[in-house]
Write a structure and sequence with these properties.
This protein is mostly helical. The chain is built from 21 helices and no strands. α9 packs across α10. The longest helix is centred in the first third of the chain and has 36 residues.
């Protein structure tokens, strides 16, 4: 169920109306059921993975903190697993649509895996209880992290490793035919895996008390506004908001609706509007001229920002309707003047996660210059690989790791707005160009395309001749409005600008946004880019 689909525009108000009619306990049950339904719409089988992850980390948190799980907690966990997992093993949405519900071999396999998972989980809990009090927390943490990472590695990276090995074997004269596995990548697995991992790590570090109620915890893992593409929330922030009573205000609801509309404007009018132009070059079959590569790459920078930040805006807006404030994931990233500032503004939830749970544990900048550069490169390489199982993502991570190291080596520390306007402008534009080359690595469909496009840009191939398709009219009209919003947000902040604006100014802005959004409804629908991660 996509955020920009008619189904979601029906789903959200229905959930909201039922939610408003209930007390806290009922609200959480409604949100949990809605979240599982939302996720199951892609494929009910995916629900088994997220349920397994939630159950595993719920147990791990309790075992880390106090070394045991009470009978009452175990019974509630079993009830949650049965109530949420059994429907997705017995039913298939395609069967429901056709009105023919048949119990077949697939259902039997799903039920068998569910039973096996419960048995293995129970035995693992019993085994972990045999550890000494001193060793048990670390053992529980290791088991939890290993379980999450193994699921992520299998579904996301198994075919990448198999295909890479197959290419090497082919070069050596072997025949790896038939090695490829038909593994379907579960939507959002990278996001919810990192989110649940942060919970067990924080419990182990003593930053958070283990949650002993399965409904709030399962809702923390599956919360539908940010489930599929973030932001990656920390349990220290989101779990208390879901476990305790929430206050809903008119202002909060209005802000939520505004974010939803503006997020749809970014996605539908702009991101979908420039996508054909980007695809005409990156998915084209002819030889691309330098001007095509530059134009398509700049437009892809626009596309991926509007696509991803648009999703985050809709997620934050939807969550505001339920009285839950999600973190802001983007803060005008293309105004950054250095790589470190860029990662403080782009995909903030992931960059801060990598900093707190990878870069700092590796040693951060505490071990001297060489160790710091090593830690930066390793963190960004793994950050690139997190985005997808392909070598271009590894190159993209290595590229950003390298410019972070170079900037750290040569840069003179300065205040964010130091220097004159001309200097700030030149620095911003120059770093935007560097960022765009990173997007070329990110978007390229093969290593040979990276070489071809890089060569075209460096040599100026093709002169001023171009074949790139034109963005749609909605995108052309929407981009200036987006630039104005970004500049205002950078200078004074959108909240301050909103309060300073007159009612007429706010009305004109919303009217322009809604008008361009309606124009963009005719754009060809495009899947959210970060759904593949």
């Amino acid at each position: 169920m996509n955020f920009d689909s008619l189904a979601y525009l029906v789903f959200l108000p229905v959930v909201y109306l039922v939610y408003r009619a209930l007390a806290l306990r009922g609200q959480n049950l409604v949100l949990l059921a809605a979240s599982l339904l939302f996720y199951g719409c892609w494929d009910p089988r995916f629900m088994l993975l997220i349920i397994a992850s939630a159950a595993m980390d719920f147990c791990a948190g309790l075992l880390i903190e106090r070394g045991r799980i009470t009978k009452q907690e175990a019974a509630r966990l079993a009830a949650f697993v049965a109530a949420s997992a059994l429907p997705c093993t017995l039913l298939d949405w395609q069967q429901i649509r056709t009105g023919r519900i048949v119990f077949d071999a697939t259902n039997a396999w799903a039920l068998g895996l569910l039973a096996l998972g419960l048995a293995v989980g129970g035995l693992a809990c019993l085994w972990l209880r045999t550890f000494s009090v001193e060793c048990r927390p670390r053992a529980c943490l290791v088991v939890s992290l290993a379980g999450n990472l193994c699921l992520l590695a299998f579904f996301k990276y198994a075919n990448f490793l198999i295909d890479s090995a197959g290419e090497l074997i082919t070069v050596l004269g072997g025949n790896p035919a038939g090695w490829h596995l038909d593994i379907v990548l579960p939507v959002g697995i990278s996001f919810y895996t990192f989110q649940t991992m942060s919970y067990t790590i924080d419990v182990y570090r003593g930053k958070l008390a283990a949650c002993d109620r399965i409904v709030p915890f399962a809702l923390f893992v599956t919360y539908f506004p940010q489930l599929v593409a973030g932001p990656i929330e920390r349990a220290t922030h989101l779990l208390p908001l879901l476990a305790n009573a929430r206050q809903l205000s008119w202002r909060q609801s209005v802000e939520g609706l505004y974010l939803i509309v503006f997020g749809l404007f970014k996605k539908v009018a702009i991101a979908n509007g420039v996508a054909p132009a980007v695809n005409s070059v990156y998915s084209g079959t002819g030889t691309a001229a330098a001007v095509d590569v530059v134009a398509a790459t700049v437009l892809f920078a626009v596309q991926i920002f509007c696509d991803f930040s648009g999703y985050s805006d809709i997620a934050r807006g939807s969550s505001k309707l339920f009285g839950v404030e999600l973190m802001r994931n983007f803060r005008v990233p293309y105004m950054a003047r250095s790589p470190s500032e860029f990662w403080q503004r782009w995909h903030i939830s992931l960059s801060s996660w990598l900093r707190d749970y990878l870069y700092i544990p590796l040693g951060g900048n505490r071990g001297g210059a060489v160790a710091t550069y090593r830690n930066l490169l390793l963190t960004m390489l793994l950050g690139g690989l997190w985005h997808g199982a392909a070598w271009n993502f590894v190159l993209w991570g290595a590229f950003h790791g390298t410019i972070l190291c170079v900037h750290r080596f040569v840069a003179v520390p300065q205040a964010p707005l130091a220097g004159g306007l001309l200097r700030r402008t030149v620095t911003t534009v120059a770093f935007f160009g560097i960022t765009c080359y990173g997007w070329l690595l990110f978007r390229a469909e093969s290593f040979s395309q990276i070489v071809e496009f890089t060569s075209a840009v460096l040599t100026g191939a093709g002169g001023l001749s171009h074949q790139i398709s034109r963005p749609t009219l909605a995108a052309v009209l929407g981009l200036p409005l987006l630039v104005v919003v970004e500049v205002v947000d950078y200078r004074v902040g959108m909240s301050a600008a909103h309060h300073r604006a007159t009612p007429m100014q706010r009305g004109l802005f919303l009217a322009a946004t809604a008008f361009i959004l309606l124009m963009g409804a005719s754009n060809a629908s495009q899947q959210f880019i970060y759904f593949q991660f």
